[in-house]
Amino acid sequence: MSYEAETIANVFLRFAREDGRGVSHMKIQKLLYFAQGHAMSLLDAELISDNCQAWDYGPVYPNVYRHLKKYGASAVRSEIVDEADAERFDPAQATAVKPFLRVVWNKYGELDALRLSELSHVTKGPWARTRRANNANYRAVIEKTLIQEYFNGLSSRVE
């Protein structure tokens, strides 16, 4: 089962609150990207139904961007909500994948946004390949097959 990016972002926001850590909008974007990649590789399942795009500063889930851009580089202070449907992005929807997401959080949550950005910008990675193939088109979609292929090839898995 796949989830909207905002739902998975809210799971990470709860982990950050539980662990007493601040988390920026940029860091949430990178955590989503790594969670999607590792889920596709290790679970052979699409975790996030939304498409990720290759923006100038890395992989971005546009819907999450729209909700969190107001925070700029500051720590995100509250979960994403949909005014019309209060339960739409409820992290409880993702209970089945919460243990997996906790592993991703434990691996990447201590890294700062800039380090996560470096990891997402590797030359042979999906973001860089998409940018090259699309002449740095600002909103080019990073194909999910490309994400899965890349994460399948990583030697260090999330464990």
From TrEMBL:
Source superkingdom: Bacteria
UniProt xrefs under Pfam families: SocA_Panacea
Domain named Antitoxin SocA-like Panacea: residues: 28-127
Protein's name in the database: DUF4065 domain-containing protein
Organism field: Stenotrophomonas aracearum
Lineage: Bacteria, Pseudomonadati, Pseudomonadota, Gammaproteobacteria, Lysobacterales
InterPro entries: SocA_Panacea (IPR025272)
